[in-house]
Amino acid sequence: MESGEGDQGGLLCILKDAEGIALGNHMFLPQSVTPQQLQHIVNQLLNNHEKLPYSFYISDMELVGPLSHYLESNKVSVEKALIIVYQPQAIFRVRPIYRCSSTITGHQDAVVSVAFSPDGQQLASGSGDTTVRLWDLNTQTPLYICKGHTSHVLCVSWSPDGKHLVSGGKSGEILSWDPLTGKQLGSTIKGHKSWVNAIAWEPVHITAPCRRFVSVSKDGVARIWDIVLRKPLLSLSGHTDSVTCVKWSGDGVIYTGSVDRTIKVWETSEGKLIRELKGHGHRINSISLSTDFILHTGAFDHTGKQYSSAEEMKKVALERYNKMKGNKPELLVSGSDDRTMFLWEPFVSKQPKTRITGHQQVINQVCFSPDGQWIATASYDKSVKIWNGITGNFVATLRGHVGKVYQISWSADSRFLLSCSADTTLKVWDLRTRKLKQDLPGHADEVYAIDWSSVGEKVASGGKDKTLKLWMG
Q: Band of the pLDDT at 2, cuts 50, 70, 90?
């Protein structure tokens, strides 16, 4: 519809941020208004000296053309004011991944975890063959074989300053590696009586250089360790069954999820239990914080800037964290065998903000997008689902996999989502169209683990076929 068609082309609109706070008063906009024109309006109303890019959503559907197109295709009534939600876009763009650049053999058993370093320059993998391996991303060849575990390596975790790599094994031991040499640092860290399920580091904006990390185990205990002293500092006891997942939040507390159906919140100076989040009817498999991406990457971003001092790194990490979090509380989402998710504001209430249903089978992983605006979930029902990260409202079901979906990973600009499955494929999904962007076959068996580098240009995957694959845009 042309804007010159008089008042019949106009519509009463309210611009709101993702939290639902209105920007200015109701305004009368022509139906011909485009996202570019809305960007101009938002920048003016926010008094942005530097013009920032924004995306616009109506009922969680991105506006990609004139408003009239949306109204026609969705048969929207123009009787009442239309709410248009604006969200800041990432300054840089990640290209979708579409080809396998390298297939690297070496592991003698299934690859169960892969992780890029926070600056995206290094890659580690853990396998059932008892080794951790570091890979050269420039030559796309094996760099170091790290030996020391006595059984399967179940998880690998980088410190957010990139200086340390630790791995947890099925026999309960934790090993620390020098990423530059592949050598084991000090002796094996022992304390757990059963296998180590997950590891999380204290954020670099709280302490730099990074020293403390927390591990959780099938023995029902979480332990906080000092990487320099190589000894346990605190034991967090209270779960009555295996602890499956852990996050060290930007607010300084630790969240642990367990087979006992509870999430426990711990303070980290004395290890006291400060809150318990209940509601799930079955084991909790995965938890994610709205700030996960910024906690993982610390001071590192797409510019590739390196830091000469821990103080500078801590300062930049704190600025990035505060900017991303704003004045909102951190949100936590949990996914369970009971096929539901809960969205929590743990510092506001011990009651869930929302109970989210929709999956038909076990939820294997939940994952906030880097900008905190979306939640993705992977399920054994062969689907990936997208939800609004603020309200928990359902947004879309992404169908295409013909086997269980094991893991998901977001692109750093929150525009694409990657999934891997028992069906041997990876798939890249476009959040705007909510459709499959790229099908990535190539693995000979189930794909267990994926990671999308924080700087955007590489994806790593590993699985039952014992190979590690690198993919590029």
A: very low
CATH of 10-88, one of 3.40.50.300, 3.30.2350.10, 1.10.760.10, 3.10.20.90: 3.10.20.90
180-203 pLDDT, tens digit each: 999 999 999 999 999 999 999 999
Q: How far apart are the C-alpha atoms of 86 and 18, rounded to whole Å?
A: 7
Report the alpha-carbon distance of residue 337 to residue 411 in Å, rounded. 26
Checking phi first, is residue 338 left (phi over 0); if not, alpha (psi -120 to 50) or beta?
A: alpha
Two tokens, residue 413: 């600009």
Banded pLDDT at 1 (limits 50, 70, 90): very low
Q: How big is the chain, counted in residues?
A: 473
Query: Backbone dihedral region of 289: left (phi > 0), alpha (psi from -120 to 50 degrees) or beta?
Result: beta
Cα(344)–Cα(353) distance, integer angstroms: 5
Beta strand pairing call for 196-201 and 212-217: antiparallel
* Mean pLDDT value across residues 125-141: 94
Distances (CA, A) of 222 to 257, 264, 282: 10, 11, 20
Residue pair 87/371 in contact (Cβ under 8 Å)? The answer is yes
Q: State yes or no: pLDDT of 248 exceeds 60.
A: yes
List, in sequence order, the alpha helices (H) in 155-297. Answer: 292-297
Locus of tokens 């999904």: 429
- Fold adopted by 99-472: Methylamine Dehydrogenase; Chain H (2.130.10)
Domain ranges of the chain: 10-88, 99-472
Smallest CA-to-CA distance from 153 within 172, 128, 187 is with 128
Q: How far apart are CA 104 and CA 117, in angstroms?
A: 18
- What would you measure as the largest C-alpha separation in the chain, in angstroms? 77
**Average per-residue pLDDT for the chain:** 94
Q: Are 63 and 431 in contact (CB under 8 A)?
A: no
Task: Find out whether 254 and 266 touch, Cβ atoms under 8 Å.
Answer: yes
Strand order in the sheet with 273-277: 243-248, 254-258, 263-266, 273-277
C-alpha 45: how far from chain center: 31
340: left (phi over 0), alpha (psi -120 to 50) or beta: beta
Pairing of strands 10-16, 82-88: parallel
Cα–Cα dist 178/186, whole Å: 10
pTM of the model: 0.91
Reduced to 3 states (helix: H, G, I; strand: E, B; else coil), residue 318 is helix
Identify the burial level of 279 via C-beta atoms within 10 angstroms of its C-beta, where 0-12 means exposed, 13-18 middle and 19 or more buried: middle
Query: What three-state secondary structure class fits 58?
Result: strand
